[in-house]
Design brief:
Blueprint lengths: L1 H13 L3 H14 L4 H11 L5 H14 L4 H13 L3 H13 L5 H14 L3 H10 L9 H9 L4 H14 L3 H17 L3 H15 L5 H15 L16 E5 L6 H9 L4 E3 L5 H11 L12 H18 L6 E4 L8 H7 L4 E6 L2 H9 L14 H22 L2 E6 H6 L1 H12 L53
Parallel strand pairs: 1-3, 1-4, 2-3, 4-5
């Protein structure tokens, strides 16, 4: 009976039906509180949805029952890494691999990725040089290329491009392909970079329904056109909660790394809590037209769930959280209803710089499928720039607007504006984001290790033929 139930949960995980799998896994744990397999199944359902606080809690419970369990230690290491706790992740995964576990290959990939993202290059080089069964997996070509690129960049690009064009796995095609794109771009081989990016998108990015996104935004704008808020805030005050509002590749990671250097502010990464609020409001049937019917008890519950996860990610000693999730620009009424009093930092950048950076980067092919086309990116940016100021004014949000170009030109002046809007005093540490030891898991993880600079401003000009007159209004 128990094995059959675990097999059923495993089938749901393979089908990416994580919510159903989680429900069954939690019921299984209630009946079998000493089953490591039950905890593992639940955690595997939680990680894809970004519910890392709950995943960490359940993995800890499982490890108290079975401290040497291979799967739970691997999952805990992955969670630690995704929470920015890379030192703990590296230590845990290294101990796991040392005892030659049944999941040694997957643990080796998790360790290699943690070392890469944390910038621990010598340790990554040593891991690859040591060899092992994991290097026989086709995914290992990415890490092999990463270790040789400093001495033989051309060979690294060749390995990655071969994997992008020849691998069977769509995931490997994307990872290898966009890593090669990044290197080609850095080497000034712009035509090759653009051609490879377009190839990878054609091969791996499904059709994106931008019309559905446009319809959702237009529904909000029609409600706002009446000139008054159509609902009252229902949740508890969230006076020490802040959100970035902006498109990917518009300077959001730089902003987060600067604020995270402040002793009172903890960057919590791209936390999925705001999106979970939105999904719950959809499930309650109140989004967006009927937010006035949201019950205070439901708002309080959603706020508590958001804050639980946010606080779990908050650094010790900080009292503010800064959420860098990239969906908030189209969820402003949801956040305003459930977490009133939150602060919002709206950051924009030259739309063409944002667009080419998105198009040449590896975003999730379904969630961010619009990045496959510059035309679709332009439509989405236009939606964001129309919606945000309208909602900020209508809902009376505590929002400050920052231009990325101004932030890098006058960092102290601009970050003081942000801190003033949050009601937090200036601290000079925010001007040295490159000294932030926190692991960055976004696509900007390499850039933010360098001092604030203007190197990416005007990048679109390297790809100028790809932009026509339809961009003029946004530019």
């Amino acid at each position: 009976m128990d094995q059959a139930e675990l097999a059923a949960i495993e089938a749901l995980i393979r089908q990416q039906r994580h919510a159903e799998g989680l429900g069954r896994a939690e019921r299984f744990i209630a009946r079998n509180p000493r089953s490591a397999a039950g905890y593992s199944a639940a955690v595997r359902c939680l990680i894809p949805s970004g519910r890392l606080a709950r995943a960490a809690e359940l993995s800890d419970r499982g490890l108290r029952v079975a401290p040497a369990d291979d799967t739970l230690n691997l999952l805990k290491g992955i969670i630690e890494h995704r929470l920015g706790q890379s030192a703990q992740a590296v230590e845990r995964l290294s101990r796991l691999i040392a005892r030659r576990p049944s999941n040694e290959v997957e643990a080796s990939f998790a360790l290699a990725e943690a070392l890469h993202r944390a910038g621990r290059r010598e340790e990554l080089d040593a891991l690859v040089a040591k060899g092992g069964a994991w290097l026989n997996d086709e995914r290992a070509i990415v890490f092999s290329a990463r270790t040789i690129q400093r001495n033989d960049r051309a060979q690294a690009v060749s390995l990655l491009e071969s994997a992008a064009r020849g691998a069977c796995s769509p995931l490997l095609k994307r990872i290898a392909g966009f890593e090669a794109v990044r290197m080609l771009d850095a080497d000034g081989r712009y035509a090759e970079a653009l051609e490879l990016a377009r190839f990878v998108h054609r091969e791996t990015t499904p059709t994106y329904d931008v019309g559905a996104l446009e319809a959702d935004v237009e529904a909000q704008r029609r409600l706002a056109a009446k000139g008054r808020a159509w609902f009252e805030p229902k949740g508890p005050a969230a006076a020490t909660t802040a959100f970035v509002v902006g498109m990917p590749r518009s300077g959001t990671t730089l902003l987060e790394q600067m604020l995270d250097r402040h002793p009172r502010i903890a960057g919590i990464g791209e936390y999925e809590g705001a999106f979970a609020i939105h999904e719950s409001l959809v499930g309650l049937g109140v989004w967006p037209n009927d937010l006035r019917s949201l019950q205070p008890a439901d708002a309080a519950r959603l706020a508590a769930e958001y804050l639980e996860g946010a606080v779990a990610r908050r650094r010790a000693g900080a009292d503010w959280t800064f959420d860098k999730t990239l969906n908030v620009w189209r969820l402003l009424p949801a956040v305003a209803a459930v977490l009133p009093g939150s602060a919002f930092i709206h950051i924009t950048r030259d739309a063409r710089d944002t667009a080419i950076s998105m198009h040449l980067s590896n975003f999730h092919p379904r969630s961010w499928g619009f990045t496959a086309s510059l035309d679709t990116i332009r439509r989405v940016i236009a939606l964001e720039r129309a919606l945000v100021p309208q909602m900020a004014a209508l809902l009376g949000l505590r929002l400050v607007h920052v231009r990325y170009e101004d932030l890098v030109a006058e960092p102290e002046r601009e970050i003081r504006r942000v801190l003033d809007a949050m009601g937090v005093p200036f601290d000079p540490a925010v001007l040295a984001p490159e000294q932030n030891a926190r692991t960055v898991l976004t696509l900007s993880y390499e850039q933010v290790r360098r001092p604030i600079n203007r190197s990416s401003i005007g990048r679109w000009r390297n790809y100028a033929p790809a932009f026509d007159a339809s961009w003029d209004a946004l530019a």
